[in-house]
Every structure is written in C-alpha cells, then in structure tokens.
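USER:
Class, as today's exercise, take the chain set out below, and explain how the chain folds.
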Amino acid sequence: MTTMTPPVPPRRREHISMDQWYAFLVIIPAILAIGVFVYGFIGWSVVVSLTDRNNLNLSQPAPFVGLENYYDVFRTARFQTNMRNLVVFTGLFLGSSLFMGLTLALMVDARIKAESFFRSVYIFPMALSFIVTGVVWQWMFAPGNWQNGDPTGLNLLFNKLGLPFLMRSWTADNAVVPSWSIEGLKTKIGIPSAMIPVVIAAVWQMSGYVMAMYLAGLRGIPDELREAARVDGATEWQLFRFITLPMLQPITLSAVIVLGHISLKIFDLVAVMTGGAPGNNTEIPGLYMYEITFKANKFSQGAAVATVMLIIVALLVVPYLRYSRAQEVER
C-alpha cells in the first residue's frame, strides 16, 4: 500500500507593512546623503588622484596620468618624513594611552575614596576638542629664549623651581634620535624630539577615555572568578596576568581601533601645537595634504595623499569589522 504525500502548500508571499515602508522612507535621505557626501566624494577623490588637476575649474578636462601622482608623492623627502612622523606618533600614542588608561582604571577599580571625583577628573579632557588641547599645551611647551635667560611655559616653571637642567627646546627641538640613514630614503629614521610634546598632549586627552573602557571591562569580570583563583593560590600578579588581561583583550582591541583611527588622521592638534615645525619634524600626512591642496593648488597630489590615508585607515578598521562580525555570528 502506497502512502500519499500531502501536497506542499504554496509559499505565502510576505507583505511589507506600512510601518516598514515608513521606516524605509525615513532613512532614504540619510542613505542618499551618505552615498553622495561620503562614498561619492571618496570616489571623486580617487578619480582626481589619477589625473593632473591643478585648478577647480571642472569645465576644463584634466589629463589622465595614472599612478604618477602617487609616485611623485612617495619619492619626496617631505612625504617620507610625514610617514615617519605618523608611525612614531601612532606607536607612542597608542602604547602610552593604553598603559595610562589601564593604570588609571586599575587605580579607580581599587574602590578608592572619592572614586567618582577621580573618574570625572580623568575623563574630563575627553570633553575638550583637540584645538583647545593644542592651544593649552602649545603654551606650556613653548620654550622661549630659555638659553639666554628668558624661558616660558614649563621652562619658566622649572627655572622658578631651581631645576634648570630640566629645561628643553620642546617643540622647537630639531633633533631626531637615533637619526639612522637608510639607502633609498630621503629622511632620517628615528623619533623627532619635537613630536614628544604632541604625543603627551594627545595622551593627556585620550587616556581618560581608555580608562573608562578598561574600567567597564574590569567591573565586568566576575568576583567569583578572582576569588577562586586566590583560593587556588594565585598571586595578585598571576591573577592580573592570566585572568584580568586575557578578559580585557576585547576592550584592548576596541581601544586600539579607536585610538589608531584618531592617530592616523590627526590634524588639528598638530596644526595648533607646531604647524608641522620644526623642519617638518612634526608634520603628518593630513597637514601635508592641506598644504599642497589649498596652498600649492596641487589638487591631484592632495587627492593622492588623501587616498593613501584612507587606505591606511581601512587596513586598520576593516579587519576589526570582519572580526566583530565573526564574533557576532559565533554568538
């Protein structure tokens, strides 16, 4: 006896509700704005970087030159110096901000008195813009004519305290340490001394933000896990090394992405504090792009620098987005 297979009912067509239509209509302006003013302008910058355009007259066609602008930019000593400065700033800024943020978070997590007060003090600089930070720290690190007895800023403070050996040229110091020369490069490899004050100002502003991220992570670690480790005989260092740090890895990754994105496109802080001086030792690609685009009218080379910056940021952000998406899928 054969069994009859029941007929498969036809698939019911899903209708879009009016609420979904309203939601779609509401976000259409945002989609169009992002498409035009973000992705459209990115595409236009890439197109301009492949041409030879030195004016804003769009009615005049610009000849196509391919990657020539990229070649011209990368072989200049100024841009090579910019890339060195960017690597130095990013490395020092990331490392110092993570260290300071974690240290402050551990101190606040110790349930100290007036904890809310210290939290507010540490995170307050985050409320300021880099312009304000740059103005304040530019005054503090202004060396003055300290070698001839006319110091300003921190040098004046050190002089009043009887600590003249601490006085430095700060943002006017042209030294690069260790100043290595590599064949094929037109710039010295090392850490520009004038970049240190810029890093200090940036760390001062962002370390409180990192502290808040780490503090949230520390408060999310179960106390039972720590107590179990102590019962098993773990020291406080072992507790920190094998429990706290591994559980803070997602926080660290997020902080690296946020800080790295800020450091790779930094502009305002450097523009206010040093303007790229001395001798381009603090100039970064963002400032260089502004100079050659709007002062030298080399729009194609400026677009090439902007595209390089976009690629560098994408190399940092895209892997993080893929990692985050993979983590969500696993959950």
